[in-house]
Amino acid sequence: MRKSNLSWALLVALGLPLSSAAFAAETHIPDEVVKDATTLRDRALNDDTAWAIVESLTTEVGPRLAGSEGDARAVAWAKAKFKALGYDKVWTQDVTFPKWERRSEHGEVLGHSSQALALTALGGSPGGTVQGEVVRFDSLKALQAVAPGSLKGKIVFVDVPMPRARDGHGYGVGASVRRRGPGAASRAGAIGYVMRPAGTDWHRNVHTGMTGYDDQTPIPAASLSNNDADQLARLVALGKTEIKLALDCGFNGTYTSQNVIGEITGSGKPDDIVALGAHLDSWDLGTGAIDDGGGIALTMAAGHLIKQMKTRPIRTIRVIAFANEEQGLWGGRVYAESQKDKIRRHQMVMESDSGPGIIYAFGGSWGTEAEKAVKQMYDVIAPLGIAYTPQQGNAESEMELMQGSGAAAAAFAHDASRYFDLHHTPNDTLDKIDPKALQQNTAAYAAVALMAANADGSLGSGPALVKAKP
Amino acid sequence: MRKSNLSWALLVALGLPLSSAAFAAETHIPDEVVKDATTLRDRALNDDTAWAIVESLTTEVGPRLAGSEGDARAVAWAKAKFKALGYDKVWTQDVTFPKWERRSEHGEVLGHSSQALALTALGGSPGGTVQGEVVRFDSLKALQAVAPGSLKGKIVFVDVPMPRARDGHGYGVGASVRRRGPGAASRAGAIGYVMRPAGTDWHRNVHTGMTGYDDQTPIPAASLSNNDADQLARLVALGKTEIKLALDCGFNGTYTSQNVIGEITGSGKPDDIVALGAHLDSWDLGTGAIDDGGGIALTMAAGHLIKQMKTRPIRTIRVIAFANEEQGLWGGRVYAESQKDKIRRHQMVMESDSGPGIIYAFGGSWGTEAEKAVKQMYDVIAPLGIAYTPQQGNAESEMELMQGSGAAAAAFAHDASRYFDLHHTPNDTLDKIDPKALQQNTAAYAAVALMAANADGSLGSGPALVKAKP
């Protein structure tokens, strides 16, 4: 049901709740805003700000494991970068979490086929040196089905290949083997745990990532490369195979990092926010280019390019470089908690945390009053080769927390076919970013953010929207 | 000049030198031999013996650095495998060489961009921990041009990218930077040496390989990954960059390994040899699948398949699994020395040491009397998609020594486009071998070897052929 701008203005004047679908006026993107967003889109397609940002972050800071010295340098870098990019306001939120350290790691096959195994400790693993016979499982379920205590003295090997997919859906199984496997192995009495990685590459790269132990006793847990998983599977098939796992890692106190937040202050509704997020931390093995340097770069660049426009946006553009996503959305939870009474103030949220691959679809969740406005946004980015998937898709990571609380969310689906070759590996380096894809990404985020900031009404944020979340 | 078989028989009876082109009879492959070779070719195209061999070697033995415990296991494996494959005679030659060991290695950028650098010690490097400012050179020549002593206390970085090519020609430059760079750096007074690898991959793999110091004082020398070379180049461009290099490696006494030789004894001329070679050792980082497990597999399989034929070959098929190729053709030199008076007894030599990629060309060097016979060989393998490049191409590695002494040689050009992504890296693992290409390789080597063994005359081996070598 279409409403005129007049009746919308009337509703505002009457102070009626904008987010209630029953009474909400239909929101619209004014023509001049569509025109500005189109200009912004085309400018972003030829701009290398995002590239310069990610080059700077991955080169000058490099790896930035949450709680490490690189984390501190990344925070300083982000504050300086926001300022250099012309953001009006830069502020931080403290984020405190248990500090996990990786010091050294080594794996080897013992006996008549003795050889090194490329592996890496899973985040959250305790240190320890264990050796024992390998028992292979071809599913997590099979491991979970064994009797408690029945694998006493063994080292569990869960060997589940992860399928490659544009939408990255194969990560669901892989990540679940990583998160739940060590606890299940511990419950069965095993002294150690190795797994085929939650990753799709065969370049001898190890894939780290967070694990947990549910309520079981933590045991040393590591991920092999896919090549080493192949090798171990062949050796186990040939006969009894013993391996040694020597991990020096573990939790060591707590650390306080920061969410670093840059804002382009809105000219008309400065307390209303279009929030763009990505995470500043990375795993330690690579330089965190695709996970999530690209996200940091394109969101920072989007705000910068909006600031360069002749007209300042009506609502505030807020870009958040989140602390410690990798070990459990620590920064995202601090932000969401701090904004729990300001969900309605979030005109729209969006995030980039599945790599800066080409965006192939645009969706999200929003109120019914925003259907036309979001379609207008889509029409501006459609020429970038993007399909429309209205009311589908998650904002990802930290912003999914906000979406879950009812913030209207844009969800950009990036091609993740290669993402799980790289993420959490030593091979997540700058050369993996396609500069053209990064420009397309920046163009899409910037154009949508600008239109959201300058829409003539709400996009439906508020607790009532929670049910609309896919 | 064509000669009849009769006049060839007459020359033999008169004891005239066969290798002298002026008097040599024209050699021919009898029709039934061509037919057998065609059958053998087609059988090899559907046979998985070579795959089973390389799977066994890379899995059960794994890495086999010359002088390591893996070297000893590889020798035992090769002896057992030749026997299991039905070779008539298995014998060894001792090969003694200086033993180089890699124990640990670490590199890092110091200061405000501190971060780890993926690197690996070059074979032959001494151990040592050094730190200093990086001086980058974009060519070996530029480094060689600096004044002696002018880089005192510095760490040299030679940054020359290696081009990808089907014929692998880019390795020439890369390997020369590796072999000559450390000596040139030492001469200039540098305390350490790092280089962009002699390799074409961007998967964060380090590429090792042998270096030397000419007459200069050895200094710690390592190769970065291409990604880390990019990173170091960017950091150096930003300003003064210090790195630390901590290598624990070096020569440690001598070691005696063995060339392992399997023979299918010839039925008519058992002292005449068709020799197929590959090297049994590998670098330690990977499992030596493409370098040179594939070569070991296809030469061993070729002999085995020839043995399976109804008729035993007239000349002996000799397959040599050479010791320590990687550190300087040690096994090849022992073999060549042992055969220096038997060049004429080598009907033909061939080797596989540029990876088991698809063979796209067949050439080599042979006497003029063998021109027709070699063309007949080519005609049998032409349907495998192979071009003919007569009197061109080197037999490679160990067999190039024999070719250089005048042995007639078959040279198979394997597609090496991907070879330098993998060789000498941790990523040289079984999954990199294309089973279909390995079958094509085996088919070509086996068919040519059989025809050489059953030719009705010489292929021209002898010192006189040396000038024919390209």
Automatic annotation (TrEMBL), chains A, B:
From what superkingdom does this record's organism come? Bacteria
Name of the featured protein: Carboxypeptidase Q
Q: Which residues cross the membrane?
A: none
Which terms are listed as keywords in the entry? Carboxypeptidase, Endoplasmic reticulum, Glycoprotein, Golgi apparatus, Hydrolase, Lysosome, Metal-binding, Metalloprotease, Protease, Secreted, Signal, Zinc, Zymogen
Query: Where is this protein chiefly located?
Result: endoplasmic reticulum
Summarize subunit and interaction data from the UniProt record for this chain: Homodimer. The monomeric form is inactive while the homodimer is active.
Domain Peptidase M28 residue range list? 259-447
Keyword Repressor present in the record's keywords: the answer is: no
Q: Where is the signal peptide?
A: 1-24
Annotated localization: Endoplasmic reticulum; Golgi apparatus; Lysosome; Secreted
